């Protein structure tokens, strides 16, 4: 009887660990988006994330312009072609632009300082400016091509006609290669 009640609790604990927020950006922070910054009061703590547009090191701090994205349960920006606006987060210290490169995913926890109008091309855009307490650079996503490898317990993956052959040895269903060695020796 005790074993039956422990199993579901253990499963929930394991599943909960999969969606945990990294410590530097964790905390009980209400969900908001940069596009709604006009409705937030100065000093409000927010957790926003997205992809880096640009990095500007200055004498005392580094400022990040970020294309905001919706965050997952683990506070990582979602891979969507949608944006919830842009924001600028400044943190004291030097952050190397060769590490924090354009396109990398970033999550920031900080306080809203002000909304400042800046230009994107010829368009004047209202940028929320954050005083960042924490900046978390996410590891790069690695895309894997799993076609051609057997799926455990279910047999070969359905869309690959040659799932068990190593990639370099497949014929890809082309016509068989005929040997011309025998024909050449008979003609001579």
Describe the structure.
This protein has helices at 2-18, 181-187; strands spanning 45-57, 61-69, 86-92, 105-120, 123-137. Residues 1-17, 167-180 and 182-188 have low confidence and may be disordered. 17% of the residues are buried. The termini are far apart. The protein is mostly beta strands and 188 residues long. It has a 5-stranded mixed beta barrel. The chain contains 2 helices and 5 strands; from the N terminus they run αβββββα. It has a domain at 22-137: Beta Barrel (OB fold (Dihydrolipoamide Acetyltransferase, E2P)).
List its traits.
globular; OB fold (Dihydrolipoamide Acetyltransferase, E2P); 2 helices; disordered N terminus; mainly beta; 188 residues
Question: What helical percentage do the residues reach?
Answer: 10-25%
User: What is the overall pLDDT average?
Assistant: 78
Radius of gyration: 26 Å
Structure summary, number of beta strands: 5
Distance between the termini: 85 Å
| Topology as a string of helices (H) and strands (E) | HEEEEEH
**CATH architectural grouping of the domain at 22-137:** Beta Barrel
**How would you write the strand order of the largest sheet?**
1-2-3-5-4
In DSSP terms (H or I, runs of 4 or more residues), the helix count works out at: 2
Weakly predicted, low-confidence segments: 1-17, 167-180, 182-188
Proportion of beta-strand residues = 25-35%
Name the CATH class of the domain at 22-137: Mainly Beta
Shape: globular
The main β sheet shows up as: 5 strands, mixed, barrel
